[in-house]
Every structure is written in structure tokens, then in C-alpha cells.
Amino acid sequence: MFASVLLGTREAKMKRSTRAARGPLGGILLAVRVLVVDDERRMAAAIRRGLEDQGIAVDLASNGEEALWRAAATSFDAIVLDVMLPGIDGFEVCRRLRHDGIWSPVVMLTARDAVGDRVSGLDGGADDYLVKPFSFEELLARLRALTRRGPVTRPVVLEVGELRLDPTTHRAWRGDVEIFLSAKEFALLQAFMRRPSEVLSRFALLEQGWDASYENRSNVIDVHVRNLREKIDRPFGTCSLETVRGVGYRLCPSD
């Protein structure tokens, strides 16, 4: 199984001289530094050897805590992050990196091919996802694609009055107070904050977080809007989420 994860040694040696003539990652990059986070020593060492053969500088971390401090101390061009780590798992590491303002591209590695795992990783701020066993050539191609995008900039944090919402980390605040929202509530608030002061119909809001099985006459939007008000308005004595009778809802700055 281990042999199927990375290219066989013989194949790698046959192609190494050609790659070296073209430079790191097929000539796309001139100077690259990658952090590999994996508690399986053989796997981490094999990835490291393969990347170093490409002229890439590689740092290793064997757990989430070490990955966080290494990423904070060094500006990496990319991070290869295993999901199954002791202590803090890869999903949480990725979320903390983004929360701390570290935007190096992240490729997550996992032995699990469940859709929910891929969604969790991508929603947590990962840029790509690779399922074990994988070809080393595919890992190189994904790193090549991520690193040639150029410097990564922090996504825009949405602001309406004192409300703030970070789409990448899935966090929201009113002033300095963090507001904890369900996935549906977050999707609705994001829709409102992307179009402040604009009236959104129930049908438009349904499209933000529900599939086609929900009919426009369903009261599911009304229920979730009511719940959203209980979190973003009522505790703060504000009325920013307004009902426009017969049309829909709108979010207005109330501050």
C-alpha cells in the first residue's frame, strides 16, 4: 500500500533528471518551501524526499501543535496537512491557521473519502484535498497549481454596521461579541450581508442554503430568520433584520 502512495523508486529515478533540468515542480517555481504535517514518519519522510528531489525546501511537523507554531514562525509557500493527527486534527489545524491570519495554500491528505470530510476540510479553509493512496505526481501537480496562483490574500470580511462575518472561518460577531450560528443561519446572514439594505425574497433566500425539494411557500425561511434575529439582534437590543411585508427581509445597519 505504501508503494502506491508515492511513485516507485525506479520510476522516480528515471524521471528525476528530466525534472531537475526543468527546475522545481516542472520549472514553474524557482524557490519553494513546504511544510509537511503527518504523524506517520515513513509517509512524511517519503514525501520529504520526493519534494527535496525537486529542489524544494521541506520542514516536517508530526502533530497539530507543532504545525501551528512552525506555520506562525515561517512563511511557507504551501502546507501538506494530514487529517488524522494526534491531539488537534487537521481540520482544526486548518481552521486555526486561517483564524490566525496564515493563508499559505493547504492540501489536506486523508485516508477517508467521505464527502463530509472533504466538505469539512474545504469549509475550514483548505485549498485542495487528496485521498490516500495517491500518486506523488498528483501531489506535485496540485502543489504546482496552488503555488503558481501567487501570493495569497486574506478574503474580505463582510461588515454591516457592527456586524462582521468571515466567510472563510465561518465566524460572525456583533462588535467584539462572537455570535455562534448554525450552518443555515450562517448562510442566511451571509446572503443578507452581501446585499445590505436590499430586500431579499424568501425564494432568493431559499437558494442560499436549501435544495430544490423545498417549496417557495414553505415557512422554513421564516423560522430561520426568527432564530437569526434571536442571535444577532435581540441580545443587543437592535432591530437590524427587518421584515418587508409581502416581499421578504432585509438587513440594515442599525448602529
Features:
255 residues, alpha/beta, Rossmann fold, Arc Repressor Mutant, subunit A, five-stranded parallel β-sheet, four-stranded antiparallel β-sheet, 11 helices
Could you characterize what this model shows?
The chain is an alpha/beta fold and 255 residues long. It folds into 2 domains: 2-147, Rossmann fold, CATH 3.40.50.2300; 158-251, Arc Repressor Mutant, subunit A, CATH 1.10.10. Helix content is 43%, strand content 19%. The protein has 11 helices and 12 strands.
- Estimate the strand proportion: 15-25%
Number of domains: 2
Question: How many strands in all?
Answer: 12
Extract low-pLDDT stretches: 1-25
Task: Determine the mean pLDDT.
Answer: 81
By DSSP (H or I, 4+ residues per run), the number of helices equals 11
The major beta sheet can be summarized as: 5 strands, parallel
Roughly what percent helix?
40-55%
**Ends: how far apart?**
59 Å
CATH superfamily of the largest domain: Response regulator
